[in-house]
């Protein structure tokens, strides 16, 4: 029976964290919409729906959904190819339906197969990306859009080259605001005096100071004043009618276009994978180590994308940046996610003019600290101490996420993890030991429960390394399945090299169906019917010798 959750049980801490996530999400929603070639307001709509609708339906306590940087290239291309944003919205509607269906068929279960070291590598990689991408904004260079996570940027630079561009475009006023914001954020949780105001998030104080400082620069006519293009740029409707024109509804005539369905399927697949990865990451970040039903999450995301498309919003996923900011701000339940969505909605309706005074440098500082907490050196040290089988997939994922994108980085990490697993299984297919006896050396090779063709190379190498005049005992007492390739290998060894080099081979635990020539063992634990059943299933048509 599902335990009923009281959303208002931790309202104080959840409101504070929701406010922080709102401040982080606001420029990201706008930046991603701009990079996607969509109306700016569509990003805000996706953020509102992701916060309120998905936040309510999801079972995740930490995860925050909204427009994702990983979808910008797909959205930009789709809008261009389809020719109109309203037709594109019908593709988002289709994507939502597909995600809803994926939830019902329990496709979310694939998240159980994401290795922990890959997820941690993804988090560390995203943390490094956040730091590298936000440093130019912190110095007043805002050529790249907020929320970009790709190595190659739309402005022609890349993550590294844009850092060097800072030296030609930095603004002293932005640097001052960044340093003040950084001092406030670091001291807010460390200085005893400030701890008295722990219910007020340090991010809010940093934002207020950033606005006030810039207003002072402007009012005094100082050259330190930050220009409008380096501030938050929220759409400001001047009337109800103008507000209504901002809302775009989907053109369902596009459903007759096969290209719309292709875009919808693509968005559904990419958004679902990113969501599952981010949900796994969010569960790892959760201090209480609560687990999210990923099938319910896919349903929530599907409904969220359906609602977003009907209101003129961008497609969405669960987003690591917002989720980690939510966790770091002390969120206790999904109420903080809902609050962030409500604040996004109210900000558009009530105080867009005030929000447009926020310097991007202040918000960049908040995000840089979020990035640092994701990519702490202690995390890298932790996986280094776990050994190469944990460290290599971790570091490969981290580097690939930074150098390419989230999905490619995770795919590389999973491939490396699988290779390591296969390599480990190859070694565990048998045990190889050597005992000293008075009458000579006896070499024991004990086969595992299942010995597949993947183990052929390792067993072949072991048999080839056995010296002349040895006594070898190959045991299969615990073995349920042996691939025909392995049987052939053992037979060839016993009948050729063993005879030529005076190697005495004794087989134990092999069924009659498995028996090799001249063996004196007739075991009784695996039936010939079982062998034929296994051989049939693996399409082995060769007769048993």
Automatic annotation (TrEMBL):
<feature type="transmembrane region" description="Helical">
    <location>
        <begin position="87"/>
        <end position="105"/>
    </location>
</feature>
<feature type="transmembrane region" description="Helical">
    <location>
        <begin position="41"/>
        <end position="57"/>
    </location>
</feature>
<feature type="transmembrane region" description="Helical">
    <location>
        <begin position="170"/>
        <end position="188"/>
    </location>
</feature>
<feature type="transmembrane region" description="Helical">
    <location>
        <begin position="260"/>
        <end position="279"/>
    </location>
</feature>
<keyword id="KW-1133">Transmembrane helix</keyword>
<keyword id="KW-0472">Membrane</keyword>
<dbReference type="GO" id="GO:0055085">
    <property type="term" value="P:transmembrane transport"/>
</dbReference>
<keyword id="KW-0812">Transmembrane</keyword>
<dbReference type="GO" id="GO:0016020">
    <property type="term" value="C:membrane"/>
</dbReference>
<feature type="transmembrane region" description="Helical">
    <location>
        <begin position="391"/>
        <end position="422"/>
    </location>
</feature>
<feature type="transmembrane region" description="Helical">
    <location>
        <begin position="117"/>
        <end position="135"/>
    </location>
</feature>
<protein>
    <submittedName>
        <fullName>SulP family inorganic anion transporter</fullName>
    </submittedName>
</protein>
<feature type="transmembrane region" description="Helical">
    <location>
        <begin position="64"/>
        <end position="81"/>
    </location>
</feature>
<feature type="transmembrane region" description="Helical">
    <location>
        <begin position="342"/>
        <end position="371"/>
    </location>
</feature>
<dbReference type="InterPro" id="IPR001902">
    <property type="entry name" value="SLC26A/SulP_fam"/>
</dbReference>
<feature type="transmembrane region" description="Helical">
    <location>
        <begin position="200"/>
        <end position="227"/>
    </location>
</feature>
<dbReference type="InterPro" id="IPR011547">
    <property type="entry name" value="SLC26A/SulP_dom"/>
</dbReference>
<feature type="domain" description="SLC26A/SulP transporter">
    <location>
        <begin position="11"/>
        <end position="397"/>
    </location>
</feature>
<dbReference type="Pfam" id="PF00916">
    <property type="entry name" value="Sulfate_transp"/>
</dbReference>
